[in-house]
Design goal:
heterodimer; B: 4 helices
Chain lengths: 456, 98
């Protein structure tokens, strides 16, 4: 067997391991094997590549691998779970940068000698790579709140964005026909970098879960195009798997918000004027002790958590309250809206970190039929995903969005810092319903007080 | 002619892998979407294969430099991605049997 054949055989095993990795992720029981399978596949891919006779100089590779590990290990080991979305965005940026740089080098090494097809995939790789690079960096900055999370808009932004993208596509088309010159390639790179920024600027915090998923998809596709260029099927398989994964997740997120792709990308949600609470409506404020009295007699409780809970560092207190109720024989469930948190599935991770068993976590479709038979729905740090206006008010910006039917529970205990509107910038009908008890204050403090009262 | 056959074979692989990906991801529990994303994020750093070739082939200084930066970037992605996925997955525990 030649070295080339050996490398190809290793690549086949590596591709199979990536597929198995995704297969194992379908269940919590096997998920960790999935991660190991993926890691093993990656080690084999790297090892198989290093065997190739074309590689004659290992010094720079070794140095770069050390640098990459020195940055990557702390990012993987030290980032708090609340920061997983921004770590993922940053990581997308790194992966996409690698694809963009390889494409750039391939252009300048082999540019004039490429056929039309290879030049086309090279341009696509570079376009997706660089736009994902800057787009992900900006998403990272927004999630880390280095820049404002609200949508940043300016007149004619969609025309400007599309013109920049159009310029990039034109430059790419010119390169496919003429195989050069380098200046036009520069235009392509610049257009991609700028478009990445323009794409993310008008997107608000509420849409970040969708955007991260889309960027995941782009990073994968960029790798797949590199596979076409280098005639490497391992890259094509791995890139296609990532591309489809990001696509499915972003579709799920869009469905969970009842919005279309184009609406997320070009709609600048959150731009709606903050409507003042309708006049004449008042909210009755209750104390944590009142809430404890209601929970004292409840037989079934559904806890609805949102990112606000994590922002207030209240997840451990919430878990403690849940455990206390469970130990008193109360039927406790946790309800999780698909867009709760800042990336798909984020809220599950935050509750799992606090120690909530995953079999107490319920998806929207499972839990909604249970609300009418539930004594208390306890809402902590969630807002828009509980707003009945999504069902009843056709003029509401969130009309049609699937929500958790907390208003159908016998009593709603809603813990909230103040009457400020949520991400979508709209008033919540739920606050004014007769069965709702609003408890104002810091989530962690309120929950801790409820626990103290129940114990006392 | 053979070159065109190669392109078609590659497209074939791409299409099949995409559909396989859609099927596999559809069956992933919503519970696990965050670790799924950090895993696929790590896998998308497969671009390291192209980066390694570039850094190791030693055509000239510029291509080595671009390749080395690309290797560093994708290594960051791989190491960070698999480590954090492992950390997240270790947090998912079922109810203790009493």
């Amino acid at each position: 067997m030649t070295i080339e054949q050996l490398t190809q055989a290793i690549y086949v095993i590596s591709a199979a391991l990536f597929i198995l990795a995704l297969k194992f992720m379908s269940e919590v029981r096997t998920a960790r094997w999935g991660n190991w399978a993926g890691a093993l596949g990656m080690i084999l891919a790297v090892g198989g590549t290093l065997l190739r006779p074309e590689i004659i100089d290992y010094r720079w590779i070794a140095a770069a691998a050390v640098v990459g590990t020195a940055i990557g290990a702390p990012l993987g080991l030290l980032m708090p779970m609340t920061a997983v979305p921004q770590r993922t965005a940053l990581s997308h940026a790194f992966g996409a940068l690698a694809a963009g740089l390889v494409g750039t080098a391939e252009f300048y090494l082999r540019g004039p000698g490429l056929d039309e097809f290879s030049m086309t995939v090279l341009c696509l790789e570079v376009l997706l790579g660089y736009l994902t690079f800057t787009g992900s960096l900006l998403a990272f900055a927004k999630l880390q709140e280095l820049i404002p999370t609200r949508p940043i808009v300016y007149p004619g932004r969609n025309y400007i964005s599309l013109s920049v993208l159009g310029l990039g596509v034109l430059a790419g088309a010119y390169l496919v026909v003429n195989r050069g010159p380098a200046e036009v390639f520069g235009v392509l790179v610049a257009a991609a970098l700028v478009f990445g920024v323009l794409l993310i600027l008008p997107i608000g915090g509420a849409d970040m879960p969708t955007v991260i998923a889309i960027l995941n998809s782009y990073a994968g596709l960029s790798s797949a195009f590199m596979g076409f260029l280098l005639d490497n099927r391992l890259l094509i398989v791995a890139g296609a798997l990532d591309g489809s994964s990001g696509l499915i997740l972003s579709i799920l997120m869009c469905k969970a918000m009842n919005r279309s792709f184009t609406n997320v990308l070009f709609g600048a949600f959150g731009q709606v004027k903050v409507e003042a609470a309708e006049k004449g409506r008042t909210v009755q404020a209750y104390t944590p002790q009142d809430a404890a009295a209601i929970l004292e007699t409840a037989r079934s409780v559904i806890i609805v958590t949102g990112y606000g809970m994590a922002a207030a560092q209240a997840q451990h207190a919430v878990k403690e309250l849940g455990d206390l109720l469970l130990s008193r024989g109360v039927d406790v469930k946790y309800a999780i809206h698909p867009v709760a948190g800042r990336m798909p599935g984020h809220m599950n991770v935050l509750l799992a970190e606090a120690g909530v068993p995953y079999d107490l976590l319920y998806e929207m479709d499972q839990i909604n039929p249970l609300f009418p038979e539930t004594d208390v729905a306890l809402v902590v740090g969630a807002n828009d995903v509980t707003n009945p206006a999504a069902r009843t008010k056709p003029d509401s910006p969130i009309y049609g969005m699937p929500i958790l039917d907390v208003d159908k529970a016998r009593t709603v205990v809603f813990i909230k810092r103040s009457l400020a509107p949520g991400f979508a910038g709209i008033d919540n009908e739920l606050f004014y319903l007769p069965q709702t008890m609003m408890v104002f204050g810091d989530a962690k403090k309120v929950v801790t007080e409820i626990i103290a009262t129940l114990k006392g | 002619m053979t070159e065109q056959m190669d392109i078609l074979a590659n497209l074939f692989v791409f299409v099949l892998a995409s559909f396989l990906g859609l099927e596999l991801i559809r069956h992933v529990s919503r519970l696990l979407h965050t670790p799924l994303m950090s895993l696929t994020n790590a896998i998308s750093a497969i671009a390291i294969v192209g980066s390694l070739l570039l850094a190791g082939e030693h055509h000239d200084d510029l291509s080595v430099a671009l390749g080395a930066v690309a290797v560093a970037a994708s290594t960051t992605n791989i190491v960070g991605g698999f480590l954090i996925t492992e950390r997240i997955l270790r947090m998912f525990r079922g109810r203790e049997r009493r």
